[in-house]
Amino acid sequence: MESSLEHLDVVIVGAGLSGIGAAYRVSTELPDKSFAVLEARSAIGGTWDLFRYPGVRSDSDMFTLGYPFRPWTEPKAIADGMSILMYIRETAEDPRIQKRIRFRTKLVDAAWSSDDARWTLELDVTDDDGTTERRRLTCGFLYLCSGYYNYEHGYDPTFPGLGSFEGEVVRPQFWPEDLDYADKRVVVVGSGATAVTLVPSMAEDAAHVTMLQRSPTYITAVPSRDKFSDAVRRHLPAGIAHHIARAKNVLFTQAFFQLCRRRPELAKKLIRSQTARILGDDTLLNENFTPAYNPWDQRLCVAPSADFFRALKSGKASVVTDTIDTFTPHGIRLSSGKELEADVVVTATGLSMLPLGGATFTVDGKPVNLGDSWVYRGLMVSGVPNLALCVGYTNASWTLRADLSSRYVCRFIKYLDRTGHRYGAPAADGGMKAHPILDLTSGYVQRAVSAFPKQGDRQPWIMRQNYLLDAPTALHGNLAKDMVFDVPAPPSTPAPDLQEIHA
C-alpha cells in the first residue's frame, strides 16, 4: 500500500438527491470522520440536473421525495424538475457538504484489501482544461449513491426504417436545448412516466402530440397540491408540518400499494373508474387504458391535476395502441397499416440499468459478480466488506429508503468503531430461494435482472418495499445479524502513570 495515497474514512459516489442526503447524514452523525463526495459530472443534482425534457417533474410527492431534515416549503406537492434541482443545490450549500464535493471525478475501479481494511479507488479526474488523468485514493467505507440507471446510454430498441425518416428523432435523456416543436406534429413512442410527462407539456405548443404505446399503462390522476399538507403548514411550524405531511403520505401510498397487491381487482376497478370519470369515453378507456397486468406489477404513472387526460380531452393530444411496422420518410407506419405523420419523434422507450455505476469491483483480488451475490437489508452485498448501495423504493418515493440507507451506514460505521472491528461483510447462508432485486415486470428491469444481486426469501435478505417495516430495522435493528467481521484489534495499553513509576 502506497503511504502517499490520500485516505478518507468514507467515500460517497454521486452528488444527486441520494448523495447529497448521504453527505448530510455522514457530516452530522459522523462528524469526526473524513469523507468526500465524488461526482462524475460538473454539477450537483444527478437525474434532476441531467434531464431537461419538457415538463420533467417528480412522480412522488415532495414531502416524501424531499429530505426529512429539510422541509419542503414550495406550494406544489408534485414539483417540476427545476424546483427539485434548486432544492438539492440549496441543501448542498451547507459548508459541511459543499467543501466535500469533488466534481468531474468518476469511479472506475474499486479494490478491497482485507489485510489493509480499505478500498483502493481508481478515479478518472477531469481538470478544468478538459484533461483527464487517472488518480487513486483509499477509503474505509464506500457508499454508492449513483443509482442503478445508465445515464450515458438509454434503452435504444431497433426501429425498422429509422434512417429513412426525414424529421427529427429525440431521446428525452439527451434533450437538445434548441429543439423547436412549435406547431409541429409530434409522436412520443412509449407509455411510461417520461411519456406521460412529455405529452401534456409538448401539447401546449405542438400542432398535435400522439403517444404511441405498444400496450396500455396504468395512469392515475393526483392533485398537484396537497390540501391536507397546505392546511397543516398554515397552522404549524415548517418542520413539524413537514413530518406530519410526510407521515400521512407514507401511510397513504403504502396502503394503496397493499391494496393493489392484495386486492388487484378492486384496485383495477378504482383506477378504471377514475379514468372513466375524467375521460368520459368508454371506447378510449377500453382501447388504451386497460392494461393486461395488475397494478404495481409495473410502476404506476401519475398525472398531476389530470394534465395528461386534459390534454387528450382538449384534442391537442391522442393515444394510439399499436406496434411499429416501420418508419417512413414522413412518420411511422403501424402494424395495423395506419400511418402516423410526424415532424418530430420522441423515443421515450426507457433507461438502461447499470450496476455499480459501471465500475469494476474486486475483493482481495477476486472480481465481484453481482449476479451471484445477495442483497442484505436492501443496501449491502454478500461477501463484500464495507460497501453499501443506495437503492430507493419502486412503490414509493426514492428518498424514503435512501435516507434510511444513509442512516444505517452511519450506524454500521459507529458499530465498527465501538466493537473494534475494521470491517464487516454480509454472509448469506445456503438454501434461500432467489428472487429478483426489483419485483417488477417492467422491460427495463427484466432486461438487467441477471446483472444485479438477488434477494432471498427471508430477512435480512428481502428487498422489502415497505417503509413502515424498514424504518425500525434501519434505525434500531441488529447490526451483527448474518454478518462476518474481522477480529477486533486488542485494546491499546494505557501509558503508566509517572507517579506510579516513581512510587
Automatic annotation (TrEMBL):
Record Gene3D superfamilies: FAD/NAD(P)-binding domain
- EC code(s) of this entry: 1.14.13.-
- SUPFAM superfamilies from the xrefs? FAD/NAD(P)-binding domain
Q: Which UniProt keywords apply?
A: FAD, Flavoprotein, Monooxygenase, Oxidoreductase
The cofactor(s) it depends on are: FAD
Signal peptide extent = none
Q: Keyword Cell membrane, does the record have it?
A: no
| A GO molecular-function descriptor | oxidoreductase activity
Specify whether Flavoprotein is a keyword of the entry.
Answer: yes
Which InterPro entries is this protein grouped with? FAD-binding_MO (IPR051820), FAD/NAD-bd_sf (IPR036188), Flavin_mOase-like (IPR020946)
Q: What Pfam families does the annotation carry?
A: FMO-like, NAD_binding_8
Q: What family is reported? A: Belongs to the FAD-binding monooxygenase family.
What protein am I looking at?
NAD(P)/FAD-dependent oxidoreductase
What species was this sequence derived from? Arthrobacter burdickii
